[in-house]
């Protein structure tokens, strides 16, 4: 077997995976991370961790600061900008999200289509710093439990929703999560009637989300705006937050239908 044989590919892929884990952990750290901290966090031998970090530094993806702290390097920052240009929202939609954030003072999210899946594209953290840890830009999971996705699904053709979710295990993330497809279709009908979707502690305990979808000139949903609030503030804020996410969605729909912005389709 040559150097590019099956065994060699397995070793290289494992090393690449570890290197990406290190890069991701460095990027996620608030003020950089040391090799020892990364070694403990990722359960990587300290020698291996140093080797991966040296490789990432040499490639420009990581920089070594004083005190042995590693932070994101220029090539990683450039990669991030390229990814944001390809998958991020248009400037017009980002402005609407900022307006929603300024009006609600809560954590707000913008989702849209990427490769045929509703995808979290951007968020702004509220004054009370409510952030659901699992949610970050690019997140696509658990559509049945998230208001941002239910707002979009409610306005898709029933056969498309069935193709995406029928027969797929709907994981119970909390005691409130809808795990039956037929029950989910009933909930989507409620969303259409109400004009916005709710996540009543279905994705994370203690967190409620309200979301409204925006659509193109053909009436096909292409994204949603979401506000997230602690359950303790939900009752007093529901009416206002519902009106504000619906206003944001209406503004985006108007821009789309007048041709002032173009976003990727669901296809």
TrEMBL record:
The keyword Transcription regulation applies. Residues 13-74 form the HTH iclR-type domain. Keywords: DNA-binding, Transcription, Transcription regulation. Residues 75-267 form the IclR-ED domain. InterPro entries: GAF-like_dom_sf, HTH_MetabolicPath_Reg, Tscrpt_reg_IclR_C, Tscrpt_reg_IclR_N, WH-like_DNA-bd_sf, WH_DNA-bd_sf. Transmembrane segments: none annotated. The keyword Oxidoreductase does not apply. SMART domains: HTH_ICLR. This is IclR family transcriptional regulator.
